[in-house]
Amino acid sequence: MSYANQSQTLNITTEQQYVGFFERVFIAILIGMPCCLFLFINGTMLFTLRSKAVFRETSRYILLYNLLFADTVLLALSQLMYILAACRIFTTYPVCGVLSMLNKLTNEISPLTLVVMCLERYVAVCYPLRHAAIITVRNTAIAIIVVWAFSSLNVLVQVLLLLTFPFEELPSLQMTDICSYEAMFLVPMSDLYDKAYTGFVFLSAGVAVTCSYIGVMVAARSASTDKASAHKARNTLLLHLVQLGLILLSTMHGTIIVSLSTTLPRLLIIRIRSSFYVFIYILPRCLSSLIYGLRDQTIRPVLMYYLCCRLRLSHFSKS
Known about the structure:
Elements: H1 2-49, H2 53-56, H3 59-86, H4 93-126, H5 131-134, H6 137-163, H7 188-220, H8 227-261, H9 266-295, H10 299-318
Helix pairs in contact: 1-3, 1-9, 1-10, 3-4, 3-6, 3-9, 4-6, 4-7, 4-8, 6-7, 7-8, 8-9
């Protein structure tokens, strides 16, 4: 009788694992489709921004290219790490460290670039006569270099903290859990430093974007300001503020998942993690293409031309 009960329990457990595995595969495919679609759109947008001299020589579009490049790389890395997690593929610590640090680097580029883009719009609306002298291609390039250097310095500090962990005492460098950025917090100082740095960056970015938005709103009420330009800049800044909020949530989702995992079953955690991935990781990385690709009158016709041409070519190649 006990053997029959044990066999029945084993069958139920095996069935739960079977359903859980195929559910993870189904969710991975379901999420991978929109992710690949937006990777295609972002890639086309990047090609569009390099196709004409007006895009390559205008500071606003140079900053947009930098933002899209970082978002596209982050989206590709996040999708790769999500597939590894969904398929329960465990990597080594060095491989996971490289993926996690590249993911962190590109994730930090977005809020800092958004701040520079908001400041550029603020100068364009509030100081239109000095805009051409302040926002030059050279100054834009310097701002982008500073953004990448500041983000790289943060990653370097995290790597140095990671190297303080005694890896030589481990029996193997093979990880026993899925690869994630939080899995690289092997020493307590890494977690404390990451929280302090993230709080500082997003507090500073939030203040800068909010002040730019208020400045543009005040300028919009001035009689000497172009009302249409100020209104458009205000809406753009508001969308960037939403982007910044979503990106901030993406840095907090790991902590939320860890806290929920102590009380909720593992299968439910997988579903929550998948929902967070769609709305916190994928959505903010696609807003830039939608904000500028659809709203900008200069980019829209060129972007639609390349998108339509590629869709026609893919259609002809299939037929």
